[in-house]
Amino acid sequence: MGTLAATDALERDDGRDASTHARVLVIEDEPGILDFVRRGLEAQGFAVAATADGAEGERLALTESFDAVVLDLMLPSRSGMDILATLHRAKPNVPVLVLTARGEVEDRVSGLEAGAVDYLVKPFSLAELLARVRAQLRVFAAASTSTLHADGIEANLLTRKVKRGDVSVSLSGTEFELLVYLLRHAGRVLSREEILSSVWGYQHDPMTNVVDVYVGYLRRKLGTPADPAPIFTVRGVGYRLGGTA
User: What is the pTM of this model?
Assistant: First the structure.
């Protein structure tokens, strides 16, 4: 829990970035802190919903649309760690910033591993909280416009994480670049020469079979015997991601 640092003198800034139009949910059981954070966010242009109850906060987070959540860990009726775990599963694209009196390293690590994107220990500066919320909104906004999807495969260009359905897939750097090229041209037949030029450059011998080898790597990592990867060979031409075989 704890006490707050002296209130920061924060003025509206007409040049602030667009993230301040975001909707933020604050879940904090100390009335003074809840009001302090709510007013501070609203003064900077955020739309804020606030609650002091853990169960109500979780309900709001799951049933309404928010761009970010500011969450205390020690809450009545539903612990912050439980809420964090639920949100990480149900809404992984909503950043959760944790506020808490728990300053031990183990507590911070537990919160971050449970899905928090950032962690502030009380007492905290409102200016720092605002800066961290804005930073996370920028990161998640960039990620949302930097994710490629096709035929159940997802590649995040910022984090370089890949999933097929709900399963994470670990790729090497070259495998990732090849997958990104295929995703960008999903449904289109790509010649081996096009792929070789775009992914490897011209420093490789055009007669090399490196494209075929790496397509094989991707197929093994993205598919299973029961559910092969949707990367199809077009005989005499090259490859296509997506569509029917």
Answer: 0.56
